[in-house]
Write a structure and sequence with these properties.
The chain is α+β, with helices and mostly antiparallel strands. The protein folds into three domains: 42 residues; 46 residues; 140 residues, no CATH class. It has eight helices and six strands, in the order ββαααααβββαααβ. The strands form two sheets. A four-stranded mixed β-sheet has the order 5-4-3-6. Strands 1-2 form a two-stranded antiparallel sheet. Helix 4 runs antiparallel to helix 5 and helix 5 packs parallel to helix 8. The longest helix has 45 residues.
Length: 239
Amino acid sequence: MYCCPHCQRNYQRKTYFDRHVGVCKILCQSKQKQKIDTEERIDTPTLRQLYTVVMELVLKNKQLEEKVQEMSSWANVKQRKLNTIDWLNMTYNVADDYTVWLSKIQVTQAHLKVLFESDYVNGVMSTLKQMLLLNCDKRPLRSFNTKNNVFYLYSQTEKKWIEMDNETYLKLMYALDKKMVVEFGKWQRANKDKMYLDDFSQTFTNYTKKVMATREQMYSRVKKELYNYLGQPATFEKG
């Protein structure tokens, strides 16, 4: 008895067995191959599926690149800020206290005259320049030419330099405004006898307009002028 190893069919005669077994082997191999091919086709994505996967990968890669760029930019800004403050703390660690300096600001008739002859910005800047001499290493307010309109102030309480925020800057402007108005009141009282003269009346009106100029616009201009005045090369920057 002869048994086919492929399909287990039995033959009594070897002649028929030999004929069968060769063909059966080929047929069984074909069926097995068909089964494998079918399984592989099931697991293999279509062209449309591959396209969808590739597009998703491209989108995720773009989002990842943007995230990395955003984090890199944030890290660079943070590093520059740390470099600036660290350098100030090492270089000017005995500066005057900003709060004390602010309380000592004085607006004089000379500063008021600059305002009369020019405008609010130049009048305020004449006061600030006198209080922030560039050759004074202890001045408590500084800026650098790599960071537009950014100022740093020194705090004796905290024993370190701090980046000035907008609220603190506005308080500086309010203090200067108050002192300027007080000085303008002194000027009015000193010239009260001239108030009824036609020529002086026009002069008084013009001066009043300059003293009471629109503040938001003036504050922005003063900030720019102050930055240009104080800005110094940032020799501490890396790269």
